[in-house]
Each structure stands twice: as C-alpha cells, then as structure tokens.
Amino acid sequence: MNPASPPQTIAIVGAGFSGTLVAAHLLSRAKAPLTIHLIERERSRFARGVAYSTTEDCHLLNVPAGNMSAYPDDREHFLRWAQARVAELLDCACVSEVTAAAYLPRRAYGDYIAEVLDEAERGAAPGVGLERRIDEVASLKVEEGGVGLRLASGTQLRADRVVLALGNFRPGDPSGADAAFYRSARYRGDPWGPDVLERLLPTESCLLVGSGLTMVDWAITLNQAGYRGAIHVVSRRGLWPQRHKPGAPAAFGIEPSGQVGAVRDGLHSIRAFIRNTGADWRSVIDALRPVTQTLWKSLGLPEQRRFLRHLRTFWDCHRHRLAPGIAARLAAMRDSGQLVRHVGRIRSFREVGGQVEVTIRPRGSDQSYVFNVDTVVNCSGSESDYRRLDSTLVKDLLGQRLIRPDPLALGLDVADNGALIDADGVASAFLFTLGPPQKGRLWETTAVPEIRGQAARLAAELLKSDHSECSEESSQSVME
Ligand SMILES: Cc1cc2nc3c(=O)[nH]c(=O)nc-3n(C[C@H](O)[C@H](O)[C@H](O)COP(=O)(O)OP(=O)(O)OC[C@H]3O[C@@H](n4cnc5c(N)ncnc54)[C@H](O)[C@@H]3O)c2cc1C
C-alpha cells in the first residue's frame, strides 16, 4: 500500500492501555473494510498491560475514578461502569466507596478496558474486524507500501501501518553487583513478573530498591498477604510518593518562557504562590497538569536536563500521589518498624551464607554500612533508555535504524503526529507510537488522562489516506 491510500490492515504491537485504546477507537471510527491485528506477548496482559493485569485488590489506581474514563469526551464512562458494579467492588479488601473520588482496584480497571474493547468490537462497521493474537513481535521490515511483521511463533503478517504501543519495560538493574548476582534466585529484576510474591513470602527480610509507586505496590501486597518480615527500602534521596487530598486546582499558572533559568524561576514562583496564598501544594501541582506538556516543550534541552538532574524525583513524588488509604497503611508499616527506610546509594550486593549482604553509603556520608536480606526486588521504575532494553524487537528496530532514542533517552524520537522518527531524522509513514515512549517529547504521557486523548487522535491519524496532507497545525495537536 502507498501511504496515500486508506489502510486496510493495521497492526498494533502491545495490548496494554495504549494499544487496546487505539484498537477500540479504530473499531469505532473505521467505515471502510479494515483488519486490526492486536498483538500481545503475554496472555495475562491482553487488554490490561503491565499496570492493570495485577490480580491484587489492594493495588489501587492512583487517579480518582472520576478521572479514569477511557474516553476524553465522556469523562464519567468509567465511573458509570464502576457504579454498575458497586456490590462487587465493595467486596474488594481496599474499597470503601464507589464515587468519583474513590481509588478503585487496578484489577477492576483492567476488566473495564477489556470491556471497552469488546464493546467497540461488537459495534464495528461491517468488514471492520479485530484479530487478537498472543505472540511476540520479533522484527519488522518496512517494505514497498507497508510493513512485514515476523512473530516469535514464526507467523508472518503484513500491515499498512503499525503502532508500537510497547509501554513500560522492566527496570534496569541497579549497579553494585557482578552479572552473576542479577541471575541469582535471590534477585527479582522484574517487579511485574510472575511468582514474585510466592518467592518473597517464605523469606524473613527483603530489600525493595526504589521508593516510587512500584515499591508501594510491593509493600502493601506483602502486608496484605500477612508477611511479617522486615521490608527494607532504599532510594538515593529518600523521597516517597505523597498522599492525595481532595481539592480543586489552584488559580495558578506559569508562562512558558523558554529562557535560561526557566526551571529555577518556575520553582520560585510555585513556592512564592504557596507562601503568599497558603494554597495546598497539591492544588498548585494539579493546576500545572493541563499545561505541563506545553511548559516542558518550551524549556529546550539544557533546561529539560536541568529539570531532570535537580527536580525529577521531587516532581515524581508530588505529582504521582497515593490513594489516602494506601498512604495511611504505609505510614502504619513505617511506624511499626516493619518498613525500614534507607537513604543513600547501594555500593554492593554480595551473596553470603544464603543471604544477600547489602552495603549502602548514606546520602551525604563517606561511611558505608551493611545489612543482610533474603531477597532483593528491583522496584526502581520502568527502563526508558531504549539502547539498554532487553527486547528483541527494539534491538531489531534500532539495528535497522528505523527508530532512535529521543535526545534525553526518556523514550523514542516521535513526530507531532505520532510517527516514529528514524536514525536519519525522517518521520515514518508507516510506524507510529503513543504513551510512555513519548516521554522525552511530552514529559507527561504515561497516565490514563494523557494517553486516552492520544489514542483517539492517533486512531484518526492512522485512518487518514495521506499523511503528507497533515498540516503542521493539525499534526501539532495529534499526540498531546
Ligand atoms: C504499576 C503501574 C501502575 C500504574 N497505575 C496507574 C494509575 O493508577 N493511573 C494512571 O493513570 N496510570 C497508571 N500507570 C501508568 C500506565 O503506564 C499507563 O496507565 C498505561 O497503562 C500504559 O499503557 P501502555 O499500553 O502504553 O503500556 P503497558 O501497560 O506497558 O503495555 C505494553 C504492552 O506491550 C507488550 N509488548 C511489549 N513488546 C512487545 C512485543 N514485541 N510483542 C508483543 N507485545 C509486546 C507488553 O507485554 C505490554 O503488555 C501505572 C503504571 C504502572 C507501571
């Protein structure tokens, strides 16, 4: 197919929230015959992805139900879905209400996405169909007028356009040990992998590396499962996610200046606003949410680097907050002494006498200290540097120069219309992406409130007959 013809086959690699929502929008919008291949390598993640395939009821959404609709133009869609299942949801251990302000189980949200897809499939126009495939896409080949896909099973497919909805990858290994340690049964490198809980429960102590939301998932899961051992948590700055508190966004804004020092000036104006008005800091962060992408893009690379160096962890723990019930439970675990906080760098891991000896250098000190744990779980957050990913497909695409990392190595280089940019700087007419791989370009692009709009706009873009007709102005709005 020529990019000037309407597509007859679209392949979507990855059936997490991003890929599934693109498929649902394609099914709803396409009026001419179209086959959509939705390909997911892990059965349990189909239409759920990493975040919503958990089976733990106490892994809660960190966004209130009222803002978790899959559809940007129907904000109450998820809430209605949940309220039609109140009794079932109230049966879950960590749910006390099903309102717009409630933080509901991510497992239930996975059921919701799966139903969104089923519903779109049932309502598709004649000739528009979905092929669900459990398989890994191992390589792609851009051919005359389309793309050939080779799957790990040996199946070959051809598509006119391909969406790489690859999402979150397992964290990179922390430094401090030789390669053998990272293959040891005492080290769990993938916090979202199978059997992690079963392996942890018989142990008397564990170390969670990183203090973000994945650490919180693990601490709460262990607590819920009756784990009585010590849970050590280490992070460089010792910052933990903050708790949500109800409240409206403040009447606060920052003008995108693009000047040198914009990051420092922005921080000063946030602090001054809070000091002068007494506003809760959450309402100030929330006021910035709708303009964060615009502010990020206005910064330019040197200021973006400055932000990442000095403010990233502060931003993350204030922006990605905890459901109040989860925060209270975590605080109780800390008060009881079960959760032990370490602030500093890991110097080494060493397997000694059936345990792992961990050496930590505390922040601001030259004196290291040592303690032993039974198991180490890497909760340090999704690896975003594509050059370091252990993915056959990503290696293949980098090797063929069909993709390139963005300049900050937070994801991939992506054009305004979602097209992937190759190693020579040319936007593809065939390969597209959305969600987490756009972090370098947009910064805020990993949560449902951002991805749902991107999915709707990318579906419209994919169905266009000719990408070259997409004006600069219209393409600007496609992926934000
Ligand atoms: C633990 C966790 C909790 C979160 N909680 C929230 C929340 O409460 N609220 C919120 O708004 N956001 C939350 N997020 C943000 C989350 O990233 C997004 O909401 C969204 O789920 C991202 O979806 P995705 O489809 O882009 O990525 P993913 O969910 O990572 O899905 C990508 C899929 O692609 C598959 N895949 C990768 N490579 C291949 C291949 N070669 N072949 C076939 N399949 C492949 C993977 O198996 C995976 O299932 C959370 C994220 C995480 C990690």
Quick recap of the structure?
Helix content is 34%, strand content 20%. The chain has 480 residues and is α/β, with parallel strands linked by helices. Helix 1 (17-29) crosses helix 17 (448-463).
Radius of gyration: 23 Å
Tally of extended strands?
A: 16
Helix content: 25-40%
Whole-number tally of structural domains: 3
Provide the CATH top-level class of the largest domain.
Alpha Beta
Which range does the strand content fall in?
Answer: 15-25%
Explain this structure.
There is one protein chain. It is built from 18 helices and 16 strands. By secondary structure, it is of the alpha/beta class. The protein folds into three domains: 9-169 and 384-476, FAD/NAD(P)-binding domain; 179-242 and 321-378, FAD/NAD(P)-binding domain (3-Layer(bba) Sandwich); 262-319, no CATH class. It has a seven-stranded mixed sheet with strand order 8-14-9-10-11-12-13. The protein has a six-stranded mixed sheet with strand order 3-2-1-7-16-15, covered by helices on one side. Strand 1, helix 1 and strand 2 (34-40) form a beta-alpha-beta unit. The chain is globular, with a radius of gyration of 23 Å. It starts with 8 loop residues before the first strand and ends with a helix. 40% of the residues are buried. Bound molecules: flavin-adenine dinucleotide. Flavin-adenine dinucleotide is lined by residues 13-14, 16-19, 39-42, 45, 49-51, 61-63, 106, 136-137, 165-168, 213-214, 391, 393, 435-436, 446-448, 451.
